[in-house]
Amino acid sequence: MTHARPPVSVRHAAPGAGVRRGVQFDAVTWLSIYLVLLFAVPSRLVFQPLGSAGAPSMVFGLAGLVLWVLMGVAATRTSPGRPRSIRIALGAFVFSAGVTYVIAMSRPIVSGEISPADVALLALLAWSGTLLLAHDGVTSPERLDVLVWRLALAGGALAVLGIAQFALGELFVDQITVPGLTPTGPFEFTERNGRYRPPGTATHPIEYGVLVAMLLPPALHVAFQHTERPRLLRWAPAVALLVLIPLTGSRSTYVGVAIAVAVLVIGWPGPRRRALLAIGAVGTVAMLVAAPGLAASMLGLFTDADQDPSVASRTSSFDAAGEFIARDPLFGRGLGTFLPTYRIFDNQYLLLLVTVGVVGTALFVGLWLATLRVLLHVQSTSEDDRTRSLATALAASVSSGFVSLLFFDAFAFPMTMGTLFLLIGLSGALRDHTLRAASRESPG
Questions:
Q1: Which domain holds residue 85?
Q2: pTM
Q3: Which of 18, 180, 261, 390 has the highest count of CB atoms within 10 angstroms of its CB?
Q4: What is the rounded CA–CA span in Å between residue 160 and residue 162?
Q5: Number of folded domains in the chain?
């Protein structure tokens, strides 16, 4: 007779319980440093000898991949019961990208495409290193909570910077100098409808807005669930992000936030769902009273979209992309070989179809689907409210990120992809802890 496995509870220790005294250096510490390099160092600052491959977060991500291999976490922390679908999906996509690289280098290629192809492959390996280290190196639910808390704090700090940029008309990041790093271009504001679009430390306001949308769900999870922390402190990141959202002046932000909130509303229980909707309603009313012009400007981004040159550029890209896709529909012309001087699609999926073909694009989307499958499994098997809440928040963030790739060529923006791959890795770590709890609690 087959017995159904009961729901699993991933128990969280009381604050400070089971934590060794002194400095604890592990994958969470490493990834926390990565967060600082990813968010605090402006994206335009790089190690000049390495060129576009010299972003500190990218170099650190490559080192993370080496660390993952040296730690041997893949061999020592096997998941009970099932293969790790996220790692399999990642491996398939990276392998397909490698195939396109070999194909590109084995046929006549414009010399100017070689270096960008190298950088694109290195960037993918760096993001993969971050994903794998988070997936296999976060060894307990308590350490996972710590990393999620630090991620929320990073989002709150980014939001405060963006609010200050919008309110004061100052970039601030142009005053940051880091020894050994050189800016790849000037720091400058862009405007829309007469208002500054804050970029934070990102390369472009679109990237910044997508980051805001992805970071909101973990911040809300912390606000509702990390009750061991002072109320004001745990709510501060989420409030800062919520205040910033209408100030971004970006359609991609609003669509990304809408996707994230929709997933949260579906996945969170009734009381928290109602609280979330109430927060949104109060915020909307406050914005209408305090800044009615801002609300009209936000609405105009969608009602007047047919008159927006950026929308026209995106829609006209489909025909141009189709011509390139038809030349090599299966494997594309090679990751990183389609230069911005040829055409800017402002749609990462179109660019993937051109560069890695239908096969690579399908495998990349498969990484998203594998992550959602993992998180749904956690939702259905865990009886711990905090664990289910985090699973929903990660599903919201990852879904927001993948949908937002429709609006810009995201692989050229390290903050977006570094964050997205980190969130995917955290999803795998959460599922791993849930399965381990199941193996401990199951009879026999």
A1: 27-435
A2: 0.89
A3: 390
A4: 5
A5: 1
